[in-house]
Amino acid sequence: MDYERLVASFKYAWQGIVDVWQNEQNFRIHACVALTMVVLGFVFSLNAIEWLFVILAITGVLSTELMNTAVERSVDLITREQHPLAKRAKDASAAAVLIYACMAFIVGIVIFVPKIIKWCLVFF
Ligand SMILES: Nc1ncnc2c1ncn2[C@@H]1O[C@H](COP(=O)(O)OP(=O)(O)OP(=O)(O)O)[C@@H](O)[C@H]1O
């Protein structure tokens, strides 16, 4: 097994995450929302199934956002001119993020809203 190549591939993936973090506002917003969900998860002591849904939602949104950035940059590399196909490619890619973000939003509502309501009823 070529361990150097394996380690290098992790390094390149990490560089990709850092680069997207530094250059894409949407990724930073998603990452902050993800961090908030993790903190709330500990605050409300989620069970294993709830954690699985939260982790799937978080990793799915961040991964689709990374892929969306890859598509945007690839399109920009091919052409900087306005082209209907460039628009369709970028919009389809953005739609993938939107669909997954909606799913993550629903997961957040279903898991956290009942717990927040319960917490409010206890304290107020
Ligand atoms: N080369 C292009 N040809 C035609 N439409 C484009 C092109 N580049 C972007 N668009 C479209 O213009 C709109 C606005 O794009 P936007 O400002 O989000 O730029 P982006 O390059 O897609 O994303 P970002 O700002 O994150 O780099 C979107 O509908 C997008 O599909």
From TrEMBL:
Substrate binds at R5, E65. InterPro entries: DAGK, DAGK_sf, UDPK. Keywords: ATP-binding, Cell membrane, Kinase, Lipid biosynthesis, Lipid metabolism, Magnesium, Membrane, Metal-binding, Nucleotide-binding, Phospholipid biosynthesis, Phospholipid metabolism, Transferase, Transmembrane, Transmembrane helix. ATP binds at R5, Y12, E24, E72, E81, Q82, H83, K90, D91. It is an enzyme of class 2 (transferase). It comes from the Bacteria. It is a multi-pass membrane protein. The active site is at E65. One of its GO terms (molecular function) is metal ion binding. The chain crosses the membrane at residues 92-117. Its EC number is 2.7.1.107. The keyword Lipid biosynthesis applies. It is found in: Cell membrane. A divalent metal cation binds at E24, E72. Coiled coil: none annotated. The keyword Transferase applies. Its cofactor is Mg(2+). Mn(2+), Zn(2+), Cd(2+) and Co(2+) support activity to lesser extents. GO terms for cellular component: plasma membrane. This is Diacylglycerol kinase (ATP dependent). It comes from Jeotgalibacillus soli.
